[in-house]
Amino acid sequence: PGAVELPKDWTVKQMSLSDQVSSSNDTLEQLAVAFEVVQGVSTVVIAVVSFVWSRHARRAQRIEAMRDLLRDACREVLLEFALDLFIGRRFVDQSGVAHELSEGDFAQILSTTVLFPPTAWHRACRSRTLLFLESLRPCAHIIGRGDADFAMQDGIDPIVSRLRLALKALADFWSPQGRLHSPCTDEHRKFLAAAFADGHSEEWVLLSRTLQRLGLAGRLDTGSSTAISQTADEAPAPHR
């Protein structure tokens, strides 16, 4: 008496409800797993993007640092002197007097046998020539060793314009092209090579590689019997 009679399908409904709850729990678990997977993938993607961006930023910094170094080195090249000496065939002394250079003047200034040129302005011009050659060395070490390849633009990079013009002036004096004429002799080449190499042939190799990188390959070679590599090693350095 007083007992509540349950519907006949109550047990079935209870089992169906349990199945639905179980199915819902499985779905939630699947969603949780999917969320964890998505979160993991997102973390990996963020890490990869951060790494790539960081690597790109570091490379950009390296390029800019190298370009700054190269720009500073090229700024020190004595371009104006090179244009005057090798193209204009003249030397302007400290008093502002311009000396037009004859073949005899070059024979005094660029000579391994004349240790002490006879006139003051000849000596001053030789000293300036040695300074010019020395101003090329930092650039030759950076470019000739390939250290700046990754930072230089293809073709003619504007930041090396001073260096390229100076080397082209030297090259036009050393080995004139086309209808150009130059008073340069084997003795002058021997002097210039010995002055730059200063007893170390690898220095001349670096300069040659620099010319090649700037589109001036072979312009400081010689067709005479005087081998520049031997000159760099054997010729005494000019009196400084």
Care to give the gist of this entry?
By secondary structure, the protein is mostly helical. It has helices at residues 10-75, 79-87, 103-109, 120-144, 161-174, 186-197, 201-213, 228-234; strands spanning 90-92, 98-100. Strands 1-2 form a two-stranded antiparallel sheet.
Low-pLDDT runs of 5+ residues are none
Quick one: how many beta strands? 2
Arithmetic mean of pLDDT: 84
Cα radius of gyration in angstroms: 38 Å
Structural class assignment: mainly alpha
- Tell me the helix content: 55-70%
Neighbour order of strands in the largest sheet: 1-2
Distance between the amino and carboxyl termini:
130 Å
Instruction: List SSEs in N-to-C order.
Output: HHEEHHHHHH
Task: Please describe the biggest sheet, giving its number of strands, its sense, and whether it closes into a barrel.
Answer: 2 strands, antiparallel
What is the number of helical segments per DSSP (H or I, 4+ residues)?
8
Shape: rod-shaped
Beta-strand level of the residues, as a percent range?
Answer: under 5%
Task: List its salient traits.
240 residues, 2 strands
Structural overview:
- This protein has about 240 residues and is an all-alpha fold.
- It is about 65% helix and about 0% strand.
- It contains 8 helices and 2 strands, in the order ααββαααααα.
- A two-stranded antiparallel ribbon has the order 1-2.
- Helix 2 runs parallel beside helix 5, helix 4 crosses helix 7 and helix 6 packs across helix 8.
Helices and strands in order, then pairings?
Elements: H1 10-75, H2 79-87, E1 90-92, E2 98-100, H3 103-109, H4 120-144, H5 161-174, H6 186-197, H7 201-213, H8 228-234
Antiparallel strand pairs: 1-2
